[in-house]
């Protein structure tokens, strides 16, 4: 995945390996329950769609960290039918390794208690794999997106 247009094209593909609910976005291969830098699979993509409800208003930071390309978008709603109705928040395209960092980041101003639909996509070409999403709430430090770090703030949508 080398650019936003390719990411949108991938979003139109149906899941072909597995569908499952997860409690974090810190994976090598989510289907195999592996951590980043595992070398279990090649030539696949991972997609995570979720509703995020911030607990404080302000500027929130999001960073994609992956092996290989990844991006995070904010959808206008929970619809999966029109990929033109979204805003790109953070991206890191091309073939590269996982950095365990927040270099590929972006911001969004959010209001406490209001729901925001996000879509994270990651493509693995070959070698080790990683799909990680970092979040930094206003005035806090970077944390991996998980139900432990952000309790009662992350909600999954049904898989179709």
Structural notes for this entry:
This protein has 160 residues and is mostly beta strands. It has a single domain (4-14, 24-156), classed as Jelly Rolls, CATH 2.60.120.1560. The protein has one helix and ten strands, in the order αββββββββββ. The chain has one helix spanning 4-11, and strands at residues 26-27, 44-52, 58-67, 70-75, 86-92, 104-110, 116-124, 130-136, 143-144, 154-156. Strands 1, 3, 6, 8 and 9 form a five-stranded antiparallel β-sheet that branches. Strands 5-4-7-2-10 form a five-stranded antiparallel β-sheet, with helices on one face. A hairpin with a 6-residue loop joins β8 and β9 (143-144). The longest helix is centred in the first third of the chain and has 8 residues, at 4-11. The protein is globular. The protein starts with a helix and ends with a strand. The model has no long low-confidence stretch (mean pLDDT 84).
């Amino acid at each position: 995945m080398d650019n936003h247009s390719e990411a949108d094209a991938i979003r139109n593909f149906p899941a072909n390996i597995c569908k499952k609910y997860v409690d974090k976005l810190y994976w090598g291969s989510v289907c195999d329950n592996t951590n980043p830098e595992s070398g279990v699979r090649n030539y696949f993509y991972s997609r995570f769609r979720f509703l995020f409800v911030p607990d404080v208003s302000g500027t929130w930071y999001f960073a994609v960290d992956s092996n290989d390309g990844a991006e995070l978008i904010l959808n206008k709603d929970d619809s999966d039918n029109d990929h033109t109705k979204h805003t790109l928040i953070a991206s890191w395209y091309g073939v590269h390794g996982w950095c365990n960092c927040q270099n590929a980041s972006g911001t969004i101003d959010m209001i406490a208690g209001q729901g925001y639909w996000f879509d994270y996509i990651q493509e693995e070409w070959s070698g080790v794999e990683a799909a990680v999403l970092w979040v930094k709430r206003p005035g806090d430090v970077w944390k991996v997106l998980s139900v432990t770090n952000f309790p009662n703030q992350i909600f999954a949508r049904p898989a179709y």
